[in-house]
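EI: anyone free to look at a 210-residue chain?
SC: sure, send it
EI:
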Amino acid sequence: MKQLGRAKRIFQAIMKKFVRKFWKSLLAAGGVGLVGAVLGARVIYYDSPQLLTIDSGSTSAGAIVVLGGDPVGRPVRAAELFAAGAAPLVVVSGDGDWGDVELMLEKHGVPEKCIVVENKSKTTKENAEFSVALLRLKGITNAIIVTSWYHSRRALNCFRKAAPQMQFYSHPCYAGLNRAEWSQNGVGYHIKVEYIKLLGYWVCYGVYPF
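SC: here you go
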């Protein structure tokens, strides 16, 4: 019995030592993983201009589709493209600030007769679906998408998902690209949320983020 009790105590001591080592290793691994995750998130955040932006370069199309959400930068960019002859028609898409976007387009030289409004969409997915329906009615098979640079990847992929047989290009607005501006006007917040939305659109709607 004494030998059995002694063996039991030895076994318990060994197990306690093992458990302590196990938890120390687990905590250490967790700490390393946490540090890695934080560093990875910082790298992704600061590399957002490269990761989130799609710019198709010099192109022309049947229409320019400018998405709501920024009543200044986006319509000004669309007006610049229109003036350069990139497309003969501008579609304003979004139910929120479409009136302000339209006024800004006209202020920067886009004639009212060259502007078409789609003011029912509430999300980027609906921007794509409703604008595609409008483009089809007009017999247009390709379009340039204008939105903010950090939104350009998801927006372009939504349009491509909505109409794979059509051709879409991205010519984003670069307002807020400078990192010094990210803490101003909510740009940093929009960048962080955009990564969540990219994942959400992939899982919920099959809109690939790449």
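EI: The mean pLDDT is 87.
SC: 👍
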